[in-house]
Every structure is written in structure tokens, then in C-alpha cells.
User: Which sequence fits this backbone?
């Protein structure tokens, strides 16, 4: 009887053990590093988390998310990256260039999924888009500047001088400015650099007196100051063409823009692949080809510009 009981007990233990799914029981720890609080970046974070939820990873259950915001401070983004590395996170989600660089500088082992990084190769965190060959992959918010120039031609046909305000520490802004100059085709490009948000007000006041239209790239320091920029531009009756939808919601005239929620959602799907064992160094970095024209109707009226005859336009009030 003792032998029979022991045998039954062993079978019960084996069956119970077989019923466990260790991969589901394990709590996944993800660190989210965001360079600054801003609508487009917030939307990408929301999309990322939703993609995880849709694939069975729920925060507070089998997922633990540690969200940190650098508030525009590059040194703080580096500190956040180091914190996540020391805590040995299972994965880091880095939103925007400063956070991506901070995470990559901190670890070459933990998988890093990025989003809203215009040029990951130029930034130095990936060897190529097709095959990053590092511990980084994700989604880029790169959008050809040519599309924004075409929009300027439609909305401000008399414009000759295009101003650009940018963060001098932002590599991707320099990439965009160089591309703008190459594609300018007769436009004079006048640039003004800033190193922190405190410099934006004086910089934009000086710049608007020299230009016909202002272009704002996907520069997180600058776009976080859009209320100041649009206020000064409107007072000078200078249209602002932005590189993303959030800036139009903040008062810029228009953009050919990307849906940042969808961009983050796609990054979340890639994170799921990595968590399930796919080698991140083999996952291509994706560039969104989903664009739409966004126009701020209130700004359009304040500038006295007639509604253009364009397709795929969403008016924002």
C-alpha cells in the first residue's frame, strides 16, 4: 500500500508540474524611458502598452512596467538607462532619440525597442535599418522632408524663406535640416539653434522677422515648446509647418504626419517577438508609410489662408 500510495503521489506531482506554464507565470519587467512629456510621445507609449496587452502581457499581472520621464534632460535619460540596466530589465522601451541613446550607452545586452527615433543609424544605435546588428530595433518616425515642402507650396505658395528652429544637441534634427537643404529647390533655409527650452522664446522672436514660413522638425526639445513657438509665429503672421500631428494640435498650421499611437503599437508587437525569443539584432527597424495631412482650422483662419483642395486632410480645431 505504501508503494502504491507513493506511486500515485509521484504521478500527481508530475501531472501538476506539467500543468504549469513557466513562461506565462514569469513576470516580465520592462523599463520605459521617455525623453519628455509630449502628446505624440505619450501616444506612442500608449500604443506600445496596448500592443503588449493585446498579446497577453498585462501590467500588474504578468507584466511590471517602470515608466521614467527625463523631462527633456539628456543626462537624466542616461541615468534612467543606467538604472534599467542595473535592474536587469527584461526589455527597455526607449521613446525618442535621447532616451534611445541613453539606454544603448547603458547596456549592450538588454533588448531595447525604440520608437520616434528619426535616424537610428546616424544616431549610432543600429548598423542598418534592415539588420540593426545590435541590441536595438523598433520603429522610426522618419518622414521625407519633401512631403512637407510640397505642403508648403500648397499652403504658402509665395514663401521664399523657410526658417527652422532646432536643438543643437539633437543629431536627428541636423539630419532633417541637411535633408531639407538638399530638397529645398530654390528656398532659402535659415536656421536657429537652441540648447534648452529657456532659449526658445528669444530664438523664435528673432527668427520670425527673417522668414516667410517656419518648419519645425521632429525635435523633442523644440516640439515641447510649441505653445511658445506658435504664439510668436501667429503674432508675426508666420505659418508653422510641423513634422508631426501633435504640433498641429498645439497650434502649428499643418503637417504631413504619422500616427504615433500606431507607431508605438507596432513597436509593441516587435517587443512581443523579442520576449518570445526572437533575436532583436535580426529584426528590421520599421518606418511607417501611413501618413495623413493634418491642418489646424483655427490657425488657418487666423492666418487668413483659404482651405486647400487636398486629399486625405483631417482638420483639427
Assistant:
Amino acid at each position: 500500500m505504501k508503494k502504491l500510495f507513493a506511486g500515485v503521489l509521484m504521478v500527481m506531482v508530475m501531472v501538476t508540474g506539467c500543468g504549469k506554464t513557466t513562461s506565462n507565470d514569469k513576470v516580465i519587467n520592462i523599463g520605459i524611458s521617455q525623453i519628455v512629456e509630449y502628446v505624440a510621445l505619450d501616444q506612442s507609449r500608449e500604443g506600445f502598452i496596448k500592443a503588449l496587452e493585446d498579446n497577453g502581457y498585462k501590467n500588474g499581472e504578468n507584466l511590471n512596467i517602470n515608466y521614467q520621464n527625463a523631462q527633456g534632460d539628456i543626462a537624466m535619460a542616461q541615468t534612467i538607462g543606467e538604472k534599467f540596466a542595473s535592474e536587469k530589465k527584461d526589455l527597455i522601451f526607449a521613446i525618442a532619440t535621447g532616451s534611445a541613446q541613453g539606454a544603448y550607452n547603458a547596456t549592450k545586452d538588454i533588448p531595447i525597442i525604440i520608437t520616434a527615433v528619426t535616424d537610428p543609424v546616424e544616431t549610432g544605435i543600429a548598423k542598418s535599418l534592415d539588420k540593426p546588428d545590435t541590441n536595438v530595433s523598433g520603429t522610426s518616425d522618419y518622414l521625407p522632408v519633401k512631403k512637407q515642402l510640397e505642403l508648403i507650396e500648397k499652403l504658402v505658395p509665395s514663401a521664399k524663406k523657410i526658417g527652422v528652429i532646432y536643438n543643437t544637441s539633437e543629431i536627428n534634427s541636423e539630419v532633417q535640416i541637411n535633408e531639407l537643404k538638399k530638397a529645398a529647390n530654390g528656398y532659402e533655409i535659415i536656421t536657429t539653434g537652441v540648447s534648452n527650452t529657456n532659449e526658445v522664446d528669444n530664438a523664435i522672436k528673432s527668427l520670425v522677422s527673417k522668414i516667410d514660413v517656419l518648419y519645425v522638425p521632429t525635435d523633442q526639445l523644440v516640439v515641447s515648446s510649441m505653445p511658445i513657438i506658435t504664439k510668436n509665429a501667429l503674432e508675426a503672421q508666420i505659418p508653422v509647418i510641423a513634422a508631426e500631428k501633435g504640433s498641429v494640435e498645439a497650434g502649428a498650421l499643418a503637417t504631413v504626419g504619422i500616427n504615433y499611437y500606431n507607431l508605438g503599437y507596432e513597436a509593441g508587437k516587435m517587443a512581443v517577438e523579442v520576449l518570445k525569443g526572437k533575436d532583436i539584432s535580426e529584426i528590421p527597424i520599421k518606418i511607417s508609410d501611413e501618413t495623413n495631412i493634418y491642418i489646424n482650422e483655427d490657425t488657418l483662419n487666423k492666418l487668413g489662408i483659404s482651405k486647400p483642395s487636398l486629399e486625405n486632410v483631417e482638420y483639427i480645431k
Observations:
- Residues 2-19 form the longest helix (18 residues).
- The chain has a mean pLDDT of 90.
- The longest strand covers residues 28-34.
